Amino acid sequence: MPKKARELSAAEVRRLTDPGLYAVGGVAGLQLQVTKTGGRSWVLRVKIGERRRDIGLGGFPDVPLADARAKARALREQVISGIDPVETKRAARLALRAQTKRLTFDEATEKFLALKRHEFKNVKHAAQWESTLATYASPVIGKKRVDEIALADIEELLTRDNLWLAKTETAKRLRGRVEKVLDWATAGGHRTGDNPARWRGNLDARLPNPNKVATKGHHSALPIDEMPRFMHHLAAMDGSGARCLEFTILTATRTSEAKGAKWGEIDLEARLWTIPADRMKAGKEHRIPLSRPAVALLKALPRHEGTDLVFPSTRGKALSENTLTAVIKRMDGALPEGQGYRDPNTGGVVTTHGFRSTFRDWGGERTAYPGDILEMALAHTIKNKAEAAYRRGDLLEKRRRLMKDWAQFCAEGATQANVTPIRAQEG
Fold it and tell me: Where would I find the Tyr recombinase domain in this sequence (predicted)?
C-alpha cells in the first residue's frame, strides 16, 4: 500500500514549480507532475493486479486540487471493486469510434458530394453524379453501412437488371463513382480494408472487360446533301422544341448548350452568343458568332415572363432531353417510307447530336476551312497540349464567316466551288 503523504494545501500546491513528482496527500498515489518546461498536471499512481498504472487526471490549475482528489478517490474505488479504469476508458473510446463508422452509403454519398461539389466542372456534372448514385446505387447499397459493403454487394449493384452488359458506359461511371465514395469513407475512418469497387485486381476478375463489351456506335447523322430539305421541313414545324433544334443546328452546338441558352448570354446587335464556362463540357467559355438566319430566328421568338431562357417549356423550365428528339421523329414519321431522315450507315433516325457530325463533314469535305477552325466551332478540346498552350484566341472572325456559309448551305445547298471561306464579306 502506498505510503501516506502529508496533505498539502492549495497554496502549497501552487508553490510547487521545480521539475519533479510531488505527492499531495489526501488520496494515496495522487501526485502533481511538474515538467522542465513548467507544465503541471495530475497523476494518480495505482497498482491493478500486478500492473502499475499512471492515470492522468488533467492539468493544474485547470483542474484544482479539490477536483483532482475527488477524481482520484472515484478511480481508487473502481480499482478496489476490481475495475481497471484505463481499460474501461479504452473500451469506451473504441465503442465511440465504432459508432462513428456506422455511416450508410447514402449518408456517405451526401457528405462526399457536399465536400467535392466545388471540384465538379459545372452544375450539370454534379447533378449527373447525384442522379447516377441515387438511381442505381441507393436502391441496392444505400441503406447498408459502408463498413459492411463487400465485393458481392458491388457485383449485385453492377449486374442488376443486366446493367453491366446493357448499359456498359453507365455501369462504368457508376462503379467509378461508388469507388470514390468508399475511398472517402475509408479515409475518414468509417471503413477499413480494400475498396470492393476497385477495378484492377478486384472486379476485373469478376466482370467482363467493359471495353470489349460496349458497342461504340456513332450518333446517327444526316447526309450532307439532305440538310437543305431537312431545314425547310423544320422551319415549317411549330413549337419551342422545333426552334431550339433549328438554333442548335445553325450554331453547331450541343443540345444541352442550346436548351440552356439565356437571353442574357446573347448580344443581338453584335450577333454573338457567349456561353459561360459552367455550361460548357470543357469548362471553358465559348463564344459563337451568330449568322443572320440565327439572329432572325431569335428576334422572332417571344420573351417569356419569369424566365431568361430563350427556349422555355410550357412550364417555364428548360426543355427536356427528349423534346428535340421528338421533333425529329415526328418529321421522319410524317414522310413516306424511304424518304425519312435516316443515317445510311446506322439505319437509324438522325439524332440532334448527329448534326454536329454533319457540320464537321460538310466543313471538311465541302469547304477549304482549316480543321482547327472547324474544331473551334464545335468547342472541341485541343488534345495536343503543346498546341493548346500556345493558342490564345478563339478565331472568332474566321468562324463568323464559317457560320454564315453553314447557314447558307442549310438554306440553299452548295457545291464545293461556291463555298469560299477566304472571302471577307460580312456574314
Answer: 217-403
